[in-house]
Amino acid sequence: MSNKPKIVVLGAGYAGLTTTRRLVKTLSPEQAEIVLVNKHNYHYESTWLHEVAAGTINPNQARVMISDVVNPNRVRLVYDSVVEIKKDEQRVVLENSELSYDYLVVGLGFESNDFGIKGMAENAFAIEDIDSSREISEHIEYQFAKYNNDQNAEDHSLNILVGGAGFTGIELVGELANKVPELCKKYDIDRSKVRIINVEAAPSILPMFDKELVAYAKKSLEDRGVEIKIGAAISECTPEGFVVGDDKELIKAGTIIWTGGVKGSSVLGKSGFELTKGKVNVDGDLRMKGEENVFVIGDCSWVWNKEADRPYPPTAQLAMQEADVVAANLKALISNQPLTDFVFNDKGTVASLGHSDGIGNIFSGYKIQGKSAATMKKVVDNRSLLLLGGPKLVLKKGKFRPF
Amino acid sequence: MSNKPKIVVLGAGYAGLTTTRRLVKTLSPEQAEIVLVNKHNYHYESTWLHEVAAGTINPNQARVMISDVVNPNRVRLVYDSVVEIKKDEQRVVLENSELSYDYLVVGLGFESNDFGIKGMAENAFAIEDIDSSREISEHIEYQFAKYNNDQNAEDHSLNILVGGAGFTGIELVGELANKVPELCKKYDIDRSKVRIINVEAAPSILPMFDKELVAYAKKSLEDRGVEIKIGAAISECTPEGFVVGDDKELIKAGTIIWTGGVKGSSVLGKSGFELTKGKVNVDGDLRMKGEENVFVIGDCSWVWNKEADRPYPPTAQLAMQEADVVAANLKALISNQPLTDFVFNDKGTVASLGHSDGIGNIFSGYKIQGKSAATMKKVVDNRSLLLLGGPKLVLKKGKFRPF
């Protein structure tokens, strides 16, 4: 029908959704056809999933209907799962159909990475998407609901074991420190019967923050009954719990969650792409090395930070900034203009510790902690909504609860 | 210290709690010491448990702190479980102590009765108290939460199988007809994937109502997607579901609930009492046959209806009316006055079919159905609160949701 180029965006996470919205603004309908492929008809705020998993927010608050933020008359929306990318044939195989493309943007997000720890995949929950996260909160509540009604219930069935003390693990135990007392009250269980245990192999929690903030976070969590075990490597996950440390101690829990690592979507490997630590190495302009028309962004992308001589850590902030560059570079490609290289503008990092505490680095090195950090975290979360869907979305899904 | 008689009331259900409150009003502190023994520090509305089990009300709405409705300065409150009644020694053995009595009121309520159906006790949930009922609602929700996240999930894990089409069974499926669409929406599951199946051996549901009302109820439930299988005897309950009918069809479900029968507390048997269908046969004045000082009321009591030549069906209404007579008879015993016989004043029966439909017989034979019956059911429920705790309790726990 037309000769206009077809841009296919895979994934409606922070990276893919932002790219799509930028493309709609940047390109006229005559310049390109845009197709957005996503497994579900909704986007979710993946940085809020720890709250869904703890049960401190409703799963629906963390998701946004794609058709509410992308005009279906401008973008063809395909709700299907990606099976394989055949880049030599410029085709994408979906579960229920196939798509050809002229330009491809791969933003397929992350999967849990258990680094091959024995039994982890089988026995631990992972925080990957809405489905997996709300199952965790329901599983936890179910342990509480069963406890008083089961003569043989063991106390450790109430325990919640979280592997990994990175961003997700620590933010999760922070939420659990709020949630567990509520569950205890609801199900007539003494708070002292429930252990929240965080296990981390590294010598510190939250390696992206400095010692002072880390010490603050650790104390805040411990004061609220979270046990933090650092320098404790997990050698195995059994149906009962983690086997930890040199003396192979078994820490038992009714709920076991692994947050210790992520990798790029498994579609990358299935498509035969060359991978660096499970991700695709990209050039400065965010194209897959050696490819003219394939961009890879977000958690699937291995982007080198030349200044720090290491890759950028995967965050929502990074993904959305990459999306801006990819949209601009797609326009440049179509118009035969030179491409620009990605430069990250770090606006800071804030970690919540439950709903009324947190730590953060903002404005290039300014440290915050306590309630002001918790407030700032909500500002950050609402800003992500603003970028994705404008003020209407902030009003609909924003975080305005009292703190 | 004193020679005043000691009245011990076992159980703070409708029967025991009402007896206690009547005694406080009827007797002066000098006339008798009153002790109320209950497993928990709360009373629960056992006629609301199907709503707790379906998850359509918060468990806390269905319970009342005993100290909120009984003055602890007038009544000694003992929160403990009854192990055995030694009536020849006028003693009650509790899990953590013992009590002697001059007069005893046994109001220990009901337990599920599976009539010996193979596997039922092991594999089906029963609606017996707050703990067991909220576990059911959590179990149901957990099946929904797991479904989309489990590659191997089978559709029948979403099914809810309810054995028994008496009051509890039918009121439960009525609530489930409201709850299931909400859960489907919350967990992104197509409503058509979920079956609510009610299985009853008798040729009709709700045997206490006439054909016209039964037909109305059946149609109302079926219109909302409840499958009702009458004349379908359950020969076995397996972990997967019910084995039903002559052809031994296995109906599979992720949630299996038995509501097909109740019997009096197992303490009665453990205490060596002579039982008729699991209950204690009482005289007209509600004393255990042959006993001077032991009253048995509520679901533990087998009370003959001479007019109808059959026992009264156990209801909250019956229990509370019995309590009035027991309190009066205790006062008469203490004062050496003649005892009076119990006469039941039937105020009618209303069954809910979810929150906006129902059927009922009120004012001796006047039939109601539809929204007016649903409204009347809430009036009945609020009246029970009024009798137990006065207007304050109605305001606190009453049912005023829109319908």
UniProtKB/TrEMBL annotation, chains A, B:
Cofactor(s) needed by this chain: FAD
Q: Which residues form a coiled coil?
A: none
Keyword Oxidoreductase recorded = yes
Please report a single Pfam family linked to this protein: Pyr_redox_2
Keyword set, alphabetical order: FAD, Flavoprotein, Oxidoreductase
Q: What region holds the FAD/NAD(P)-binding domain?
A: 6-323
Q: Which InterPro entries match?
A: FAD/NAD-bd_sf (IPR036188), FAD/NAD-binding_dom (IPR023753), NADH-Q_oxidoreductase (IPR051169)
Which biological process annotations from GO are given for this protein?
aerobic electron transport chain
What GO terms are given for molecular function? Answer: NAD(P)H dehydrogenase (quinone) activity
* PANTHER family, sorted: 64 KDA MITOCHONDRIAL NADH DEHYDROGENASE (EUROFUNG), APOPTOSIS-INDUCING FACTOR 1
What is stated as this protein's family in its record?
Belongs to the NADH dehydrogenase family.
Record protein name field = FAD-dependent oxidoreductase
* Species this protein is from: Virgibacillus halodenitrificans (Bacillus halodenitrificans)
